[in-house]
Amino acid sequence: MDDVEGARTFAVAGATYDAFMGRYSLPLSELFADAAGVTRGTALDVGCGPGALTGVLVSRLGPEAVRGCDPSPSFLEACRARYPGVVLETGRAEALPFPDDVVDATLAQLVLHFVSEPVQAAAEMARVTRPGGTVAACVWDAVDGMEVLRAFWDAASSVAEVPAEAQTHPFGRPGEVVELFAGAGLEEVVESALDVATTYASFEELWNGFLGGVGPAGAYCVSRSEQDRARLREALFARCGSPPGPLRLAARARCVVARVPA
Ligand SMILES: C[S@@+](CC[C@H](N)C(=O)[O-])C[C@H]1O[C@@H](n2cnc3c(N)ncnc32)[C@H](O)[C@@H]1O
Predict the structure, then answer these.
(1) Ligand 1 neighbours (beta carbon < 6 A)
(2) For residue 18, which of 173, 198, 163 has the smallest C-alpha distance?
(3) Residue minimizing CA distance to atom 25 of ligand 1
(4) Which atom of ligand 1 lies closest to the CA of 75?
(5) Is the pLDDT reported for residue 33 higher than 90?
(6) Can you give the residue ranges of every domain in the chain?
(7) What is the mean pLDDT of residues 115-133?
(8) What's the 110 CA to ligand 1 centre distance in angstroms?
(9) Is the separation of the CB atoms in 56 and 42 below 8 Å?
């Protein structure tokens, strides 16, 4: 699925993603599954990536009760290797490769902001979920809820002109996913905030994550000239408080859980 716009910056190894974003999405997965009330039944992980949320669903429901899909071949390969027995398909949220009413809960973690046709994606998430089932999504808070990305884009803007649209993303503001889900005919739509944090052994570890080229920030970082990248590194170090050793950064996601009409 090379033609999926939102997946272009995710053609990397699972381990590269884990070092950059998986360190946040792993703890987020437990909170997200709790918020969605996933304790039994079947579930679909839309945009599963290398499997942060997939793993949590497997541990709660068993592999045979879990399905997933993603347009990135390298992520699917990583997810399949980690979670044998889970049905994992190549596919995008706008055209989910699953039949109607197939699961009790459909979840999309850190995916909606990469989807080209979100209205279609919300309709698809509702379609594959049984009546009375759960549809849920979470997206990083777009204002200042994700410290490492905020620091990165602030640092990048201090070094060069960065297009405004590169520095933020849709569905990270209160009410945005609520509106999307309500528009898809979903009911009992409830929004909350989910807070996680990660500790980097050093600034070097944090910086190396960007050099993996993952996601829009990583792709931007590796696209710079060597000279600009060195200035960006310096600016980011300063934004992080010039830490001499380990540093801990927080991230907040906006989470929305809804019910498919019975
Ligand atoms: C930030 S990663 C999140 C991965 C995983 N859900 C997690 O929480 O770690 C975004 C994921 O969305 C996938 N993606 C991009 N465009 C998509 C689309 N249109 N439909 C479904 N997934 C998409 C990417 O391939 C990538 O795996």
Answers:
(1) 4, 6-7, 10, 21-22, 25, 46-49, 52-53, 70-72, 75, 92-94, 109-111, 114-115
(2) 198
(3) 7
(4) 27
(5) yes
(6) 5-143+169-199+247-259
(7) 98
(8) 7
(9) no
Mean pLDDT of 202-222: 96
Distance CA 219, CA 49 (A): 17
The residue nearest atom 13 of ligand 1, judged by CA position, is: 47
Looking at the domain 5-143+169-199+247-259, which fold is it? Rossmann fold (3.40.50)
Summarised one tens digit per residue, pLDDT across range 14-31 is: 999 999 999 999 999 999
The label of the residue with tokens 């170090």 reads: 237
Look at residue 24 in the predicted model and tell me its pLDDT. 98
Taking the centre of ligand 1 as the mean of its atom positions, its distance from the CA of residue 223, in whole angstroms, is 21
**What contacts 157, CB < 8 A, 6 or more positions away?**
167
Nearest CA to ligand 1 atom 4: 49
The residue to which tokens 């380990």 are assigned: 246
- Report the separation in Å between the CA atom of 48 and the middle of ligand 1, taken as the mean of its atom positions: 6
First to last CA, the chain: 34
Average predicted confidence (pLDDT) for the chain? 96
Confidence (pTM): 0.96
C-alpha to C-alpha distance for 76 and 131, rounded to whole angstroms: 28
> Rg of the Cα trace of the chain?
18
Distance (angstroms) between ligand 1 centre and the Cα of 89 equals 13
